[in-house]
Structures are given as C-alpha cells and as structure tokens.
Amino acid sequence: MQITLNGQTIETQQTSLDGLLTEQGYTDMNIATAMNDNFIPQTERAETVLQEYCVVEVVAPMQGG
Amino acid sequence: MSLSLYQTQVNSRLLLGTAQYPSPKVLQDAISKSGTDIITVSVRRESSSDQAGQHFWSLLKDTNTHILPNTAGCRSAKEAITTAQMTRELFATPWIKLEVIGNDDNLQPNVFELVDAARELSRQGFQVFPYTTDDIIVAEQLLNAGCEVLMPWGSPIGSGRGLQNPFALETMRAYFPDTPLIIDAGLGLPSHAAQAMELGYDAVLLNTAVAKSGKPIEMATAFSQAVQAGRIAYQSNPIEARDMAKPSTPVAGTPFWLD
Q1: Which of A4, B68, B85, B100 has the most CB atoms within 10 Å of its CB?
Q2: Is A42 a member of any domain?
Q3: Interacting residues of B14 by C-beta distance below 8 A, sequence separation 6+
Q4: pLDDT tens digits, residue range A11-41?
Q5: Cβ of A30 under 8 Å from any chain B Cβ?
Q6: To which H or E segment does residue B228 belong?
Q7: Helix ranges restricted to H, B6-61
Q8: Is A51 a member of any domain?
C-alpha cells in the first residue's frame, strides 16, 4: 500500500505501525510517532493498523529555543 | 534564591535554548557556563539513516539539566497538543513550552489557539509553560486553563530588541504577584535580562542572544551574571528616579562655602 512517511510517499507491505518502523530501520531509537495527526504511543504501535494513504510522522529530539 | 516551577526547585533563573550553536561542544560549554538548570529542546522528523536526533539525545543526557520541550512551529491547538504528546513520551517529562504561532513575520503567539491548547494539555496532566504576549486578559485565561507559569515575550523571537513594552510587563508583574513569570524571547543583551529581573520577573528564557553571538560561551557567562545582578537588585529595593539632581556628598562643611 502507499503511505506517507515523514513527508515522503513510500510503498510498504507492512500492516502495522510497529512493522513499518522496523522495516524502515527505526530500531532501538528514541522516537515518537503520530498517524493522521494523532499521537500513537509506543505501547500502541503494534496494534495500530496502517491504512492506504495514511500519513505517519516519526520524530526525535532536536535542538530548540 | 531558588525558584519553584510546578513544584520543581531550580537555582538558576536563566533558561537556555539549545538551537543555532556553532557546534555541539560549544553548546555543552555554553550550558555549563550559563549555570542553567533548564534547557529547551524541540522535536523534528527523524531519519533512520543519519539518526541526528539520537546523537543530540545522547548529548542532552549528559547536561544534568531539566528538559523543557517546546512545540515550536505549531500553528494550531491541535498541532501543539499532538506535538506535546510526542515530547512527553520522548523526554519523559510533563513539562511543555507551549508555542502556537499566529504570525509568520513576528512569530507572535495565536493566543486563542494557545488558551485552547493550554486547557486541553492541563486536563491531560501536562505542566504548561505558555509562550504568550503581555496581555493580562490572556494571562488570566491561561491561568484559568490550568497554567501555573506564564512566559510573556520581551519582543519578537530572535529579534534581540529587548523589552519593547516595560510598562505592560510591569503591569503584568503587579497583576500576578504570586505567579512565576518568565520573559521568553526577544532578549539580545545581558542588560535586557538584568532589566527584566529588575522589574521583578522570576526568570528569563533566551537562545539566539547566546548561540548567535561571536563568543557563545562567554556570552552565556555574561547573561548568567546579568540575571543574578538583576535579581539581587530587585530584592534590594532600588531608589526612585528623580527629575532633579540631589548631591550624594554631604553639603554641610563644604570648604570655601560662601554663606
């Protein structure tokens, strides 16, 4: 299916958010996630089902003022 | 001399941002020299290949400071709430520096969205540090929304113009004598920080003035000393300004005085 990950359109066969993160190399990293503008806690990633054209954001700490 | 923010005691009254430094080493040294107990951070999209955020996270953990994440870049309550939820998980803190920008030119907060976001985040257990204006009606609404700290701007973010409306800031201080008030944004010089502290503000938050100076580490020291000087001055009951001169040297006994 086609989804958007951090602003980039990609194809994935994964069905869960957790599977997508593993597929895309986000392992053992301090990250936070959102799907379709809603926060998805780490504890809910495995049960969060990806949908066609869904929009996933993966963020990490960054310098800020 | 310590300051209580949501039941957390800190000694330094200088909060320091972590952006725009010439190198991670300079950032670390500036944090150290500033003596700050609280640093501000943000979140951005992470690439699994370069992992920039993970390197920064390692640096943060060595600073031994409290982390105050922000919602910089958000333009609606909804965006700010989602961002805050992500920062709470990333940084394991209920603190959130709530920014909801309403104007691209002066980065002025959209106070309507700000109050909505503050109310919802407080309901969700966040401890909100709202970046706001010097409008006391907005301030009242933020307090009613659950905020226990207010952070009015001194002038637009990154402008370095100092306190553009000291009268409004004095009014805010007088209206909310028991609320921790932190000047956030717009400071450019240590004298600006000292002025804010002399007005009775509890702390100042700045970033650009240190990070973009020619010598960030030295400037961090300068701001630290200015904040301490301004705080001591405020507590020392400064004299009133006068229109006319008044000699400080006693007049009685002046030689060559012609009676």
Answers
A1: B100
A2: yes
A3: B34, B35, B36, B193, B203, B204, B205, B206, B223, B224, B227
A4: 999 999 999 999 999 999 999 999 999 999 9
A5: yes
A6: helix B216-235
A7: 24-34, 52-61
A8: yes
CB pairs under 8 A between A and B: 107
In angstroms, the CA B193 to CA B62 distance is 27
Nearest to B99 by CA among B19, B4, B219, B26: B19
Q: Which two tokens stand for residue B199?
A: 């007005």
- CATH code of the domain in which A35 resides: 3.10.20.30
How many domains is chain A built from? Answer: 1
Instruction: Tell me the residues of chain A between 36 and 55 that have a Cβ less than 8 Å away from chain B.
Output: 37-39, 41-42
Annotated active-site residue B25? The verdict is: no
Report chain A's terminal Cα–Cα distance, integer Å.
38
pTM for this one? 0.94
Residue A65 forms part of a structural domain: no
CA B82 distance to own-chain centroid: 23
A64 within domain boundaries: no
Contact B18 A29 (CB under 8 A): no
Domain residue limits at A45: 2-59
Tokens standing for residue B224: 């630290």
Q: Does ipTM top 0.90?
A: yes
Distance between first and last Cα of chain B: 51
- In this complex, is the C-beta atom of B49 within 8 Å of any C-beta atom belonging to chain A? yes
Cα A10 → chain centroid: 12
For residue range B100-115, list pLDDT tens digits in order. Answer: 999 999 999 999 999 9
- Tokens 């020619």 belong to B214
Give the phi and the psi of residue A43 in degrees, each rounded to 5. Answer: -70, -15
